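May I ask for a protein sequence together with how it folds?
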Amino acid sequence: MDIAQNAALVVVDVQQGFEEVGFWGTRNNPAADDNIAALIDVWQSTGRPVVFVRHDSVRPGSPLRAGYGGNGFKEYVEQRRGKGSGAELLVTKTVNSAFLGTPDLGAWLREAGITQLVLAGIQTNMCVETTARMGGNLGYEVVVAFDATYTFGLEGPFGWRQSADELARASAVSLHGGGFAAVVTTREVLSAAE
């Protein structure tokens, strides 16, 4: 795998509100935060661009709502913002896709000549997957660092329930098998980027 010198790392919704277990339930992949931090560190040390995405929920009571403490980035992300030598962008959004936020992510990427995106963050099957699908549809080469993402169990129609691991695997299969993105490990990304 090749990681371009100008590949953008898109860090999706790594916010304090996701620590509220009473709201979300049980998460998977406890190593995700360390992997996200490692990706940010390598991107910043190599001068690559980093996009930090924040979900400003419009749902009352959401731990991610604007003006609530949970809306802020997790401490390890906040401490890294502004520390790299490459370009940095903050995108805020109220929907799942980072491409439908402010400022316009697609316009920023085009202006910078960026065609490859590496995605990490929360939740695997929600905002990470939606951003990856849209990026693939828009013609970007999308790489998802699977173990630098996590999610929570969810109930759907007919009383069906899937665990966080099941949902994450389903996302990986859909993205990779469907041709939207290459789903790889953080180690593979770091080895190609260092």
Q: What stands out?
A: DSSP finds seven helices and eight strands in the chain. The two ends are 12 Å apart (CA to CA). The CA atoms of residues 110 and 178 lie 24 Å apart. The chain has a mean pLDDT of 97.
